[in-house]
């Protein structure tokens, strides 16, 4: 009986063909230039295997692309959620942004998060320009864009400030890719047997203290070096130690 109820409760979670965004939710605030975290419940295997993520704004009737966040994500692989990217500098800072997810070439069946706030790096934001949708629904909205997308003057301004606010598009796309690679790499690392060798504890562990940017490649390199070192030590030990 108990098992029966558990199965009933779990059924919608397990049997999801659909890819289901779970965060950000209403009231969430992210600062431009900082981590923006997106979460979802993965689809079943073979479901949403080629997911594109877009940052959007606009009304429900007229959603507008702000910028592309990621594409080609395997939305059936649970290890990709939560997904981090760097929120761009936008105009205005307001609770008018949301994510749209599509799978492969199928643009007819998108799914969305609710609207959330992208605030300035100091946390400032303004209320949405419109308090209700064109059809009257009391869902505030507004039109946003990347800071600098509107005209040449503001573009120049954003270039001047981008060294401090890290808000331009190439950086954010690159950083979302980087986060993804970092994530993939770290799962790879966990699966690498070299890490779980007992003798690894005799080797000092510098990767922890490396700057995040290069941690992955250096850690890989170090893994290789320490594997060689460990193999060498074992070889030497096998001569002198009858164990
Ligand atoms: C953002 O996430 C990265 C890993 O993806 C982490 O190294 C970094 O410390 C985070 N930054 C902040 C401000 O939380
Ligand atoms: C994503 O960013 C959040 C907030 O900065 C951080 O706590 C988390 O560790 C990051 N996750 C990954 C996978 O980088
Ligand atoms: C993945 O989706 C993109 C559109 O977002 C499409 O151009 C690409 O061909 C798809 N890849 C595969 C392997 O179907
Ligand atoms: C998606 O479209 C691209 C061309 O736009 C095509 O090469 C690709 O095979 C398509 N993918 C699927 C799964 O139909
Ligand atoms: C550029 O945009 C700013 C505000 O976004 C506006 O004040 C300015 O007049 C615009 N300049 C031109 C040339 O359109
Ligand atoms: C974005 O940032 C990168 C790296 O700092 C820089 O090379 C590029 O010129 C910037 N692009 C714009 C449009 O500001």
Q: What report would you give on this structure?
A:
It comes from Dendrothele bispora (strain CBS 962.96). This is Yeast cell wall synthesis Kre9/Knh1-like N-terminal domain-containing protein. InterPro entries: Kre9/Knh1-like_N, SRP1/TIP1-like. The protein folds into two domains: 167 residues, Immunoglobulins (Immunoglobulin-like), CATH 2.60.40.10; 50 residues, no CATH class. It contains five helices and eleven strands. One 2-acetamido-2-deoxy-beta-D-glucopyranose binds next to loops. One 2-acetamido-2-deoxy-beta-D-glucopyranose binds next to helix 2.
In brief:
With 243 residues, the chain is α+β, with helices and mostly antiparallel strands. It contains 5 helices and 11 strands; from the N terminus they run H-E-E-E-E-E-E-E-E-E-E-E-H-H-H-H.
